[in-house]
Amino acid sequence: MSAAPVIPPLFRGLFDDAAVFPPGNLPVAEAVPAHRSHRTARYADAVGPFLCGAGRLDELAAAARDGGPRLRVGLVLPGGSAELGPALSAAAPFEVAGVELATRDAREAVAALDLLLPADVPAAVELPRELLRGDGLDEVLDVLVDSPYRAKFRTGGVVAGAFPDEEELAGFLTGCAQRGLPYKCTAGLHHAVRHTDPATGFEHHGFLNVLLAAQETDRAAAAEVLAERSGELLAKAVLALTDRQVTVIRNSFTAFGTCSIAEPLDDLAALGLLSPDPTPQEDR
User: Fold this and answer.
1) pTM for the full model?
2) What is the widest separation between alpha-carbon atoms in the chain?
3) According to the model, what pLDDT value does residue 277 have?
4) N or C, which end of the chain is more exposed by having fewer CB within 10 Å?
5) What confidence category does residue 283 fall into, taking pLDDT thresholds of 50, 70 and 90?
6) Residues 208 and 191 sit within 8 Å (Cβ to Cβ)
């Protein structure tokens, strides 16, 4: 029997399970038992909550009526504050681990969360990237830093334009770092190292790049880290992190949604950052 893997603090709870979202699009009926397997696997400490859109909570409830453990669910609300109250009610069968609220008005979103969200449930607020350009980024981050809520930033999608370049992402990361504002990311980050997808030609950020850039307050320095394509160099930088640096990084970059749990773990194992390899054969 192999030894139980130790998930280093840098990666604990980093990978929120977004299996039902594009490009994975796993059916809910398959995603629920897969998530429960993740939560009892040797690598469970790396896995965050099951992410579910507001419009699929009834489907999720039906899939979870099997006598299994109560699901920890992150509510993803693309329709804004109007979805918050109904989604919280529909999520009664689950343990609500967080709320991710998309909006075009940060102040309005904060007010709705203040009014309706239980005090012990964390939330992240996402604005469209076009509203975060120029002075818009500072305005939004200033609203959120005065609230109990995280920021959320979209780092990819199913079209090339959904992927911010290094400069744009560096602006968001350093804006948050300068304010001590935590954040999560979503989409396009399920591989460890920055790369060009051979099938689509899309430029994907690597989650190791983002982790290492999270400690930077200088935009140019963060952009340089985000542009690095050598897994060997990134792995060496990760192994050289002090405990204090790891704490700073994870207090900033709290999690990201990934439609695959196995892929990021496989990447970390290949780079020598997880030992023994924790991913079960059937997940590959």
Assistant:
1) 0.94
2) 56
3) 52
4) N
5) very low
6) no
Q: What is the pLDDT of residues 83-94, one digit of tens each?
A: 999 999 999 999
Query: In this structure, what token pair is assigned to residue 119?
Result: 């005090």
Q: Please, which pLDDT band fits residue 5 given cuts at 50, 70 and 90? A: low
Would the pLDDT of 262 be above 90?
Answer: yes
| 238: helix, strand or coil | helix
Residue that is written with structure tokens 């954040």 in the block = 183
What is the CB neighbour count within 10 angstroms for residue 222?
26
| Phi, psi for 18 (deg, rounded to 5) | -110, 40
Place of tokens 């609203």: 143
- Contact criterion met (CB below 8 Å) for 74 and 99: yes
Does residue 197 contact residue 263 with C-beta atoms inside 8 Å? Answer: no
Say if CB 178 and CB 145 are below 8 A apart. no
CB-based contacts of 18, cutoff 8 Å, min separation 6: 24, 51, 186, 257, 258, 259
